[in-house]
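Re-run requested by the PI after the first attempt was lost when the workstation crashed. Everything re-entered from the original request form. Ligand of interest: magnesium ion.
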Amino acid sequence: MITLEEARARVLGGCAPLAPRPRALADARGLVVAADVAATELIPPFPNSAVDGFAVRAADTAGAGRDRPASLAVLGTLAAGQAHEGEVGPGQALRIMTGAPLPAGADAMVMVEDSRLSPDGERVDLAAEAHPGDHVRPAGDDVHPGDLVVPAGTVLGPAHLGVLSSLGLVDVEAFPRARVGVVSTGDELVEGSGPLGPGQIRDSNRRTLLALLDESGCQPVDLGLIPDDEARIAAAFEAGAATCDALISSGGVSMGEFDFVKRVLDRVGEINWMQVAIKPAKPLAFGAVGGKPTFGLPGNPVSSMVSFELFARPALRKMMGHRVWDRPRVTAVAPDGLRRRPDGRLQFFRVAVRWAEGGFEMASAGGQGSHQLTGMAAANGLAVVPDGDGVAPGERVEVVLLSLPGL
Ligand code: AMP
Ligand code: MG
């Protein structure tokens, strides 16, 4: 057996970032920016009003208050998207809306709340003193040309896409989503809702792995369900390698008599067979088919998911340009403890983590067998329990956070 760290080093060392290319903003959320983006324009592009109200010369409102309003002549009304031709002169005001350009001559805004318009709309009484710059957003208040607005390595979120849009950009140089083919192998597997024949079970891994890929920002490609047949497994891997950036199979990598994936991968790829000192997910095949990183995950449903989390997900994130490869970890109290036996392996427990008044707390999420997928379904964390007798009640444990409510 090799350590988790050693196995991860082999896997991550075998995956390189994909070539960046321009991507339409409409399809860029979650992608990693490959080159610094610097601003070429001012944002806002012109000084504009932060309120609905009256653009004035601040000096005209000196000493104004509730009992002694300043009375100014109203030049007209300006909506956002319009520009005023003339100038606001002494004793004059222009009624403008939030976002409208501050007219020439004016240097401050008085909020509509502090104003009273005459019935004919010709004059306005302003009950507040304005100071130069009041309620005015200067040009470039957010961004100046040359500002580094989105550095390389940024994971594009909604606000980044907004910043890029406000600069008039329609695409961005980014690492692509990895196209990842998924294949299930096993003579016992069937799909769909039909009755099960003797010895048959339904394929769950493919659905799960495709969803994990989608959740990880990859482009999942369903390569189907393949029986334990060397020629068909080889054909599936080779066809997948021709169109995908990486391949994932589940099943057929253990010590069983019909573990053909092993034989096929040895023939068509350059594969590293590992026994990793973890539970679940001890067996792992990793290498390349047709130059494409290929993961042979174990067949047991929980094992395939844990193996995906520990090896495939970080590697695929690396390929997609991410600088953080792993899920966040927190420590959580285990009020009931987590019991295990020493076996030389690091054990990952499926746990339900919740925030409990100032700290994280966890409980076992259900059956801990590698075939008990409902435990994984009820879990939002993997507790990392070192070799030994486990965790005593009330102790703190490190947990890989898979999800949190609301996140
Ligand atoms: P294997 O790694 O092929 O020896 O499979 C280990 C266990 O996982 C066996 O009980 C298989 O029936 C089960 N298994 C393998 N592939 C799948 C799958 N795609 N969906 C559900 N169970 C599977
Ligand atoms: Mg099998």
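Saved to the shared folder this time. The chain has a mean pLDDT of 96.
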